[in-house]
Design brief:
Layout: E1 20-24, E2 27-31, H1 40-51, E3 56-62, E4 67-72, H2 79-88, H3 97-113, E5 120-126, E6 129-131, E7 134-139, E8 142-146, H4 154-164, E9 170-176, E10 181-186, H5 193-207, H6 214-236, H7 242-252, H8 254-266, H9 272-285, H10 289-321, E11 327-332, E12 335-340, E13 349-352, E14 361-372, H11 374-377, E15 383-385, E16 390-391, E17 396-408, H12 414-425, H13 431-442, H14 444-458, H15 460-468, H16 473-492, E18 495-497, H17 501-505, E19 511-515, H18 516-520, E20 526-532, H19 539-550, H20 556-567, E21 579-581, E22 585-590, E23 593-598, H21 600-605, H22 612-623, E24 627-633, E25 636-644, H23 651-660, E26 665-669, H24 674-684, E27 688-690, H25 695-707, E28 712-716, H26 722-727, E29 730-733, E30 747-749, H27 756-790, H28 796-820
Helix pairs in contact: 1-3, 4-5, 6-7, 6-10, 7-10, 8-9, 9-10, 9-15, 10-16, 10-28, 12-16, 13-16, 14-15, 15-27, 15-28, 16-27, 16-28, 19-20, 27-28
C-alpha cells in the first residue's frame, strides 16, 4: 500500500508536521524535514509518542532522505493509530523518568557529535526497552548486536570489553569497534535477552559522554590525507580542480583556524596556532596548495600520533602490573565458589593455586606459596609467603597454594593505586616543555617580523618557510611521552614516583635529611632488655602489656614488641580502642587495667613517677646509643623495655654515593635521644644531626633549611614523618608498599631498600637527557631552516619536512625507554 501526498499543518510544539506518507507492510515512511533542525524537546516528544507505542519496533531518522521510518507489527498496530500518535501529540502512556533520561542521553549525544543537528538516529524497541542496539542474529544463548555509537569508537569498545568481563553469566564475547558489533554467548537460564540489552545500554550511557567522536577524528585524518593528494593533482595536473581543492583544504583546516581565533579573542594571546593558520592561508594565497594541504595533514597526524603514544603508554602500564583477573575462588562453607572479583569484600577468604594471579591485597591465613611480586616491589626473585604474611593484587603465585583473607579489593588495591598515581603524575608539564611552549608563543611576533624580512629579502617562499618553523609543537608531544615512559619504568623497578616534578628537580637538590629510626637504622629494632620497676610485674607481664597495647600499630617499636612476644609464645589479650598521641605514647585498657606505654617525656606529662634506679638504667641505655619505652599499669610504673638497633648495611654506601652525586649536606634527624642519634651520626659521617625532635619540629627543620636557599630531600618511613615529607622539596618514603594510600611523599621505595636512591638518580638523569635531546632535535632544524630561508635555500616544503620530521623523531625519542629499558634495571 502506498499513500500519496498528505501535507499536515500544525502549530503545536508537541506535534510534528509530515509532508508525505508511504505505507508498506510493517513499515511507514514519513517525510518530516523539520525534525532535523528542531529543538531537542520536540524530538524527544516525537520519539516518546512512537517508541513507547505497543507494536512499534523501530524508529529511524535519516538526514539524507529527511525521513522518519517507523517499523511496526501489523498484527497489533494499525497505520492510522501511528498517524494519530504523531498528529495529536498523545503518547500511549507517560514515559517514566528512566525512559526520558535514556532518550535525552541518546538525542543529546547524537546532536553533540553532529554539529547540533539530528543527522542520523535509530532507536529499537524490545519489549518495554528502548535501545540503540540492533539485534542482527538471535539464537538461544547466543546473540549478535550492532550499535552505530560503537562504530570506530575504540574508547567505548574497550569500556564495553572491560564491563562485559565482569559478568559471570557471559561465557564468551567479542567486541569489534570496526563493525560496531558485539557477539555474546551467555547462560540463557540466568540471563535473558532484555536484561542483557539493558546492561549494554547502561554501559554505553555511562561512558559515551566521556568518549570523543573517533569516527570524526578518523574521518578528519582520512579527509586531510585525501585533500593533500587532491591538492597535488590540482596544482600539477588539473588546474580546473584548484577551486575544489581550496575549499577542501579550508574545510579540513577549520580546527586550526578555530584554535587561532580562540587564542586571539578569548585568551587574548598570540600563540603558535596563529602561525599554523597563517602558513595554511598564505600557502593558498601564494599557490602552494600541496604545502597548505600538507600542513593540515601533518597537524592531524600529530594529533593521531599523540593519541597512539598515550594509548601505548597505558598498554605498557597494563603489561607491567598485569590486567586483573575476571574471577576468583571464594571459600564459603568449605566450598570454593567462582565469583566475579568485583563482588569480593573485605575479610572474604580466597583460594589461590599455582599459576593464579592474586586478585586482592590481603594476608595469608593458611598454606605456603612462592609469589612473584616484582611488578609491585621490584624484587627480582619470588618470595616465600606463609600464614600471617602480606600479599598484593596483580602478583603471581608461582608455586604452592594459599588461602588469602582480603584486606583491599578492586580499585583500592596497591596495583590499581600505582597505575592511578602514575597517570595522575603525567599531568605535570615538564619545565623544558613549558619553556618550549613559552618560547614558541613568544617567538610568534618575532617570527612574523622575520617572515616579513624574509618576504622582502627572498620572496614568499622564505616567508612561508620562516613562519612554519616553531619550537613548541614537537616538545608538547615529546615531553609527556618521555615523562610517562620513565615513570612506568621506574615503577617496574619498585620506585613509585607519585609527583612527576621529581624527575626534573632531583638534580637541583643539595641537602638530604634522613629520619633515623627505620630509615638509616634497621626497620625493626630488637628488644634487648626488660627491666621491672620494683618486682610487682615479671618481665613477661611487662612485655605482654606493651605488646597488647601496640598490637594494632605497624611502627618499628610495635613490631619489635610483637616479634619478641611471638618468640616467647605469649598470647596477647584483646584491648579496647586506644588513645594514641603521635610521638608521645598510648593508653589503653587491658584486663580492666589502664595501661600506658610511651617515652619518658610522655610519662612526665602523665605525672607517672619513675624511680631513680630506672632513671639510672635509662641513662646507661642512652649512653650506649640504645632506646627505651616505659610501661605503666593503673598509673604505676611497671618497668622499662630497652631496644637496640644498628644502621642498615647499605646506609654508609648510599650516603657516599649521594655525596658523589653532588649532594652537599647529609643531615640526620630523630625523635630519639642525643646518645643514639650521635652514635649513628658518627658511624655514618653525616654533616650534622638533631635529636629529640617531635614530628612537627621535623617539618620546621625542613623549612629552616629551605630558608637557607637549599633544596631539601626528606627521607622518612612512617606517620611521624608525614608533615616533614609534605614540606620538603622532595619527600621520599621507604615504608614500602604497605602505606601507599596514606603516604604524602613524592616517591615511594616499594621494597624499602635505600639502594633505590641510586636508581632514582639514574632514572632522573636519563629523563632529563631524553627531554634535552628532544628539545635540541626540534630547536636546531627549525633555527637552521630560518637561516636558510633568508638565502633562498629553504622554502615551505623543506621547512615542513624539517619541522615535522624532527617533531616526529623527538616523539619517537620520548618512547625509546619503552624499547631499550624494558628489561633493564639501569636507565
Amino acid at each position: 500500500m502506498n499513500a500519496g501526498v498528505n501535507p499536515d499543518k500544525t502549530d503545536s510544539d508537541d506535534q510534528v508536521a509530515y509532508k508525505r506518507v508511504r505505507v508498506y507492510p510493517g513499515r511507514i515512511r514519513l517525510d518530516i524535514e523539520e525534525i532535523f533542525h528542531s529543538r531537542n524537546e520536540k524530538v524527544r516528544n516525537f520519539l516518546g509518542k512512537l517508541a513507547h507505542t505497543p507494536g512499534v519496533t523501530q524508529v529511524k531518522f535519516s538526514a539524507v532522505t529527511k525521513t522518519a521510518i517507523i517499523h511496526y507489527t501489523p498484527d497489533t498496530l494499525k497505520p492510522q493509530e501511528i498517524f494519530s500518535r504523531v498528529r495529536n501529540g498523545h503518547p500511549t502512556r507517560e514515559m517514566d523518568e528512566a525512559a526520558e533520561q535514556e532518550l535525552d542521553i541518546i538525542i543529546n549525544y547524537t546532536m553533540s557529535k553532529k554539529g547540533g543537528d539530528l543527522e542520523l538516529l535509530k532507536i529499537n524497541r524490545y519489549g518495554d526497552r528502548l535501545t540503540t542496539w540492533k539485534i542482527k542474529r538471535d539464537v538461544p544463548g547466543r546473540i549478535r548486536l550492532r550499535n552505530p555509537f560503537l562504530l570506530q569508537n575504540r574508547f567505548l569498545a574497550k569500556r564495553l570489553d572491560f564491563e562485559l568481563a565482569k559478568t559471570t553469566e557471559i561465557t564468551k564475547y567479542n567486541v569489534s569497534y570496526i563493525s560496531g558489533g558485539v557477539l555474546i554467548v551467555y547462560n540463557e537460564k540466568v540471563l535473558n535477552k532484555n536484561r542483557l540489552i539493558c546492561q549494554l545500554d547502561q554501559i554505553l550511557f555511562t561512558f559515551m559522554q566521556e568518549a570523543e567522536d573517533p569516527v570524526q577524528k578518523s574521518n578528519k585524518l582520512a579527509l586531510s590525507s585525501a585533500s593533500m593528494v587532491f591538492a597535488v593533482v590540482a596544482g600539477n595536473f588539473a588546474p580546473w580542480l584548484i577551486p575544489f581543492s581550496v575549499m577542501l583544504i579550508l574545510y579540513t583546516a577549520k580546527p586550526i583556524f578555530q584554535r587561532a581565533i580562540k587564542a586571539a579573542f578569548e585568551e587574548r594571546k598570540i600563540k603558535v596556532d596563529l602561525l599554523d593558520a597563517l602558513v595554511t592561508i598564505l600557502g593558498l594565497v601564494f599557490g602552494q596548495f600541496g604545502s597548505a594541504a600538507f600542513m593540515v595533514w601533518i597537524l592531524d597526524m600529530a594529533d593521531k600520533l599523540m593519541e597512539k603514544t598515550t594509548e601505548q603508554s597505558k598498554i605498557y602500564l597494563d603489561q607491567i602490573f598485569g590486567k586483573q583477573v575476571r574471577f576468583a575462588y571464594l571459600l564459603k562453607d568449605g566450598q570454593e565458589i567462582q565469583v566475579p572479583i568485583e563482588t569480593l569484600k573485605q575479610n572474604d577468604i580466597i583460594s589461590v593455586n599455582t599459576g593464579d594471579q592474586i586478585p586482592v591485597d590481603g594476608i595469608v591465613v593458611d598454606g605456603e606459596a612462592m609469589i612473584d611480586q616484582h611488578n609491585i616491589t621490584g624484587e627480582s626473585a619470588p618470595v616465600e609467603r606463609s600464614e600471617g604474611e602480606e600479599v598484593f593484587a596483580s602478583t603471581l603465585l608461582v608455586a604452592g597454594k594459599a588461602l588469602i583473607k582480603a584486606l583491599k579489593t578492586g580499585e583500592n588495591t596497591y596495583a590499581s593505586q600505582i597505575i592511578h598515581i602514575i597517570n595522575a603524575a603525567t599531568v605535570h608539564k615538564v619545565k623544558v616543555q613549558s619553556i618550549g611552549e613559552r618560547l614558541a608563543d613568544r617567538m610568534v611576533v618575532p617570527t612574523l617580523g622575520m617572515g616579513a624580512l624574509g618576504l622582502l629579502a627572498a620572496g614568499p617562499n622564505a616567508l612561508l618557510a620562516i613562519i612554519n618553523s616553531d619550537y613548541g609543537t614537537g616538545i608538547r608531544v615529546a615531553a609527556p611521552v618521555a615523562m610517562l615512559s620513565h615513570l612506568a619504568i621506574a615503577a617496574k623497578q619498585g620506585v613509585l614516583i607519585k609527583e612527576a616534578h621529581v624527575l626534573e628537580s632531583l638534580k637541583d637538590t643539595d641537602v638530604v635529611l634522613f629520619d633515623k629510626t627505620g630509615t638509616l637504622t634497621k626497620e625493626v629494632p630488637e628488644v634487648s632488655r626488660i627491666i621491672p620497676a620494683d618486682g610487682s610485674f615479671e618481665e613477661t607481664q611487662i612485655l605482654l602489656y606493651a605488646a597488647a597495647a601496640e598490637q594494632r600499630f605497624s611502627h618499628p617499636i610495635s613490631r619489635a614488641l610483637l616479634t619478641k612476644s611471638e618468640q616467647l609464645a605469649l598470647k596477647l589479650p584483646p584491648r579496647n580502642d586506644a588513645e594514641y598521641q603521635v610521638g608521645f605514647g598510648i593508653n589503653v585498657r587491658i584486663y580492666d587495667d589502664l595501661v600506658k606505654v610511651g617515652s619518658s617525656r610522655y610519662f612526665a606529662r602523665e605525672k607517672i613517677h619513675i624511680p631513680e634506679s630506672i632513671q639510672k638504667e635509662l641513662g646507661n641505655t642512652r649512653a650506649q646509643g640504645k632506646s627505651a619505652i616505659f610501661v605503666a599499669v593503673n598509673e604505676k610504673l611497671a618497668g622499662m623495655i630497652e631496644f637496640q638497633s644498628s644502621s642498615r648495611p647499605e646506609a654508609g654506601l648510599v650516603i657516599d654515593k649521594l655525596r658523589r652525586r653532588g649532594i652537599r649536606e647529609i643531615v640526620l634527624i630523630s625523635g630519639d635521644h642525643e646518645a643514639p642519634t650521635k652514635y649513628l651520626a658518627d658511624q655514618l659521617c653525616v654533616d650534622r644531626y638533631y635529636s629529640g625532635i617531635l614530628p612537627h619540629e621535623k617539618a620546621e627543620h625542613v623549612r629552616l633549611l629551605q630558608q637557607e636557599g637549599k633544596k631539601v630531600i626528606m627521607v622518612g618511613d612512617g606517620v611521624n614523618d608525614s608533615v616533614a615529607l609534605s614540606c620538603a622539596d622532595i619527600g621520599i618514603s621507604i615504608s614500602g608498599a604497605s602505606t601507599i594510600a596514606m603516604d604524602v611523599s613524592d616517591v615511594v621505595f616499594m621494597d624499602g631498600d635505600l639502594n633505590k636512591f641510586d636508581y632514582l638518580f639514574d632514572i632522573s638523569e636519563a629523563f632529563n637527557r631524553n627531554v634535552r635531546r628532544s628539545f635540541l632535535m626540534i630547536l636546531i632544524p627549525n633555527t637552521l631552516c630560518i637561516a636558510l630561508a633568508f638565502f633562498r635555500l629553504a622554502g615551505l616544503p623543506v621547512s615542513m619536512v624539517l619541522n615535522n620530521g624532527f617533531n616526529f623523531l623527538a616523539t619517537i625519542n620520548g618512547m625509546l625507554p619503552y624499547f631499550d629499558r624494558k628489561n633493564s634495571k639501569k636507565p
